[in-house]
Amino acid sequence: MLSRTADHLYWMARYTERAENLARLLDVSYQMSLVPQSVASQNENWRAILALNSLEAAFALVYNEVNVENVLRFMVSDPSNPSSIYSCLRAARENAHAVRGTLTAEMWESVNATWIELRQQNFEHILARGVSEFFDWVKLRSAVTRGVTFGTMLKDDALHFIRLGGLLERGDNTARILDMQYHILRQNDDEGASDFYRWGALLRSLSAFQVYRKVYRDAITPGRVAELLILRMDMPRSLHACADGIVRMLQLIANGASAETERQAGVLHARLHFARIDDVLAGGLHEYLTDFMDRIYELGDGISRDFLIPG
Amino acid sequence: MNADFYNEMYDSAGTLRPHYSAFAEWLAGMPPERLERKRAEADTAFHRVGITFAVYGEESGTERLIPFDIIPRIIPAAEWQALQAGLWQRVKALNAFLHDIYHEQAILRAGVIPSEQVLNNTQFRREMMGVDVPSGIYAHIAGVDIVRAGAGESYVLEDNLRVPSGVSYMIEDRKMMMRLFPELFSRHLIAPVQHYPDMLLENLRTVAPKGVADPTVVLLTPGAYNSAYFEHTFLAQQMGVELVEGRDLFVKDETVFMRTTQGPQRVDVIYRRLDDDFLDPQVFNKDSMLGVPGLLAAYRAGHVTLANAIGTGVADDKSIYPYVPEMIRFYLGEEPKLNNVPTWMLRKPDDLQYVLAHLPELVVKEVHGAGGYGMLVGPASTHAEIEDFRARILAAPEKYIAQPTLALSNCPTFVDAGIAPRHLDLRPFVLSGKRGIGMVPGGLTRVALREGSLVVNSSQGGGTKDTWVLEN
Question: Is the ipTM beyond the 0.85 threshold?
Answer without folding.
Answer: no
